[in-house]
Amino acid sequence: MSELALFKKDLPDYLKKVELDDATKALLGSGGGGKRISLRGGKFRMVVNNEEVMTSNSDTLNIVVVNNAKRVSRTFYAKAYNPKETATPPDCWSSDGETPDASIEEPQHHNCNECPQNVKGSGQGGSRACRHFRRIAVALADDVGGDVYQMTLASKSIFGKGDLEHMPFEQFGSYVASQGYNLNNMITEMRFDPDSDTAKLFFKPLAFLTEQDWEIAKRQGASMAAKKAIEISVPKTDSAPKLAAPKAEAEDPRAEVAEPKKRPEKKATEPTAKKDVKSILSSWSTDDA
């Protein structure tokens, strides 16, 4: 019996509630990366232990957001990315986006908002040298009880304002919450912005989950995989991920956490008050998921 066949068989009842012991947890990260969805090259790429296993040919992907980091994080590298050099840990980073991590020996500033690396123009192309990112844990909409994937969203996918069909993540989350729902109540569409030179995503709600799938989504959000996916940690090893310089043409696997290149922005249209959004959401069928 192969290992894959073993894990695909029906589990004994006691294994359905088993939790990893400390000895096994210690090995969890040794394989090199877990499961994540990369946005490299403007495509959704499923990556398992740093090996790409599947690439989507569509510019959209339907997911369920089962968990997300509560704060936007920051990472700063003093040197520009060089693919020929071994990746090194960042020179400064913050998990809460407000103060440098306690492990930083020489922080750039005691306050992230007042840091000179947070000033426009401190980075390449008029960008900020210190980059924002946010991690979320997602399941595929057609397999809510399957694998949980980590996603790292860059600033262009986090901040800003759009219309109801094209919302960055923070606006999307705030919008859903304002209607009285949670992100794990629904199927979310992620879509690449075709007018962006970098991997910029828009989000919009598609349909409510059935009650059964919602219960599964809640369990997924509380799982070790989801908690690990949104965890922000920077190991002091050469294997730590490093942000790429903002270069649209580079096929750098770390580009999804880079500050996107500055480009003229289209004037965004804010959600209009003429739409009865509450009734729109409430009219979704719970049988569509």
Characterization of this structure:
- The protein is built from 7 helices and 10 strands.
- The protein is of the alpha+beta class and 289 residues long.
- It has a domain at 34-69 and 134-262.
- Strands 4, 5, 6, 7, 8, 9 and 10 form a 7-stranded antiparallel beta sheet that branches.
- Strand 9 (186-192) and strand 10 (201-208) form a beta hairpin.
- The longest helix is centred in the last third of the chain and has 11 residues, at 211-221.
- It is globular, with a radius of gyration of 20 Å.
- The model is unreliable at 28-32, 237-277 and 282-289 (pLDDT under 50).
Q: Overall 3D geometry? A: globular
Instruction: State the total count of DSSP E strands.
Output: 10
Distance, first to last CA: 35 Å
Q: Largest beta sheet, briefly?
A: 7 strands, antiparallel
Question: What is the topology?
Answer:
Elements (H helix, E strand, L loop, with lengths): L2 H6 L13 H7 L6 E4 L6 E4 L2 E5 L4 E9 L4 E4 L15 E3 L35 E11 L8 E6 H4 L10 H10 L7 E7 L8 E8 L2 H11 L2 H7 L46 H6 L7
Antiparallel strand pairs: 1-2, 2-3, 4-7, 4-9, 5-6, 5-7, 7-8, 9-10
